[in-house]
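Let us walk through a complete example step by step. Step one is to write down the protein sequence. Step two is to encode the small molecule, NAP, as a SMILES string so that its atoms and bonds are unambiguous. Step three, shown after the inputs, is the structure prediction itself.
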Amino acid sequence: MKRILITGGGGMLACALAESFNDGQVLSLPRAEMDITDLQQTWSIVRDYKPHVILNPAAFTRVDDCEIFAERAFAVNARGAENIAVCARRAGARLVHFSTDYIFDGQSSVSYREDDRPNPLSVYGASKLAGEVLVRKALPRHYIVRTSWLFGKSGANFVSFVRQKLTEQKYVQAAIDQIGSPTFTDDLARAVKLLIETDCYGTYHLTNSGFCSRYQLALEIAGLADCCQDLVIPIKMEQLKLPANRPRFTVLDNASWRIRGFKPVRHYKKALRDFFKDVL
Ligand SMILES: NC(=O)c1ccc[n+]([C@@H]2O[C@H](COP(=O)([O-])OP(=O)(O)OC[C@H]3O[C@@H](n4cnc5c(N)ncnc54)[C@H](OP(=O)(O)O)[C@@H]3O)[C@@H](O)[C@H]2O)c1
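Step three: the predicted structure of the complex.
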């Protein structure tokens, strides 16, 4: 039976991964028990547990806070990722490291492929890109999985936030000019489970199929939650005056996934319906 180690155990994706892999032996540790910026602590856990696979969703993900706490962003998202890769190499384990659509600048008008040139607009994006580079250097047996717009059972995310506001009859502003692919953590976890059964290492884009603007997504959420769509206010991203710049268009072409013969991950609208049915 495979031993799986999951970092950042309290996080949204980590919870979905732990659930999805629960037919094996899983150790999922929150930051308080394994801080990936602490190489010694991390290595002693990896050395003792001897995982076959390490899944690394741990990250400093608060995009706006990363602008203020840039040092921390790089410590976790870049050096922390490198630490995990070094531990995986020493232990002879495979590593799935998670990255983001925010490594791209969003200027493209066609979906991004894995080998398209990254150009992050934010500290968060830059720190995640640095993490990718360090993981590739430290460990040949890596899968770097870039994903986007996650929603899932636990943790703060756009879908849960919008639903909460709308059910409280509150207005929600949503950008008409930010386009991406919402991705259900359960679907991503299932896809990762298939991926690690192969020796096809490398970089992957993995998202639900389909894409939309934040505004369209908020309208869909209103529909599914049986709330008034008039509460959703369309705005432009610049009106939100957020500290970190966000890329406008980050649809990720899951090209490597497809080329390896995997079926496309289902449409985000189907995933969203299941999320509302089962979870909320
Ligand atoms: N959410 C999205 O929309 C999205 C989109 C694209 C890519 N991603 C990527 O997908 C991955 C998972 O995202 P998520 O939304 O599940 O994130 P999340 O809910 O914020 O979870 C990240 C977890 O990492 C933990 N963490 C932070 N610093 C750590 C450290 N030094 N050592 C160990 N754990 C640490 C956090 O713990 P604390 O809360 O205690 O700090 C948190 O529990 C991340 O790599 C992210 O970059 C996310």
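Step four is interpretation. The pocket of NAP is lined by residues 7-8, 10-13, 31, 35-37, 57-61, 76, 80, 98, 100-101, 128, 147-150, 155 (CB under 6 Å).
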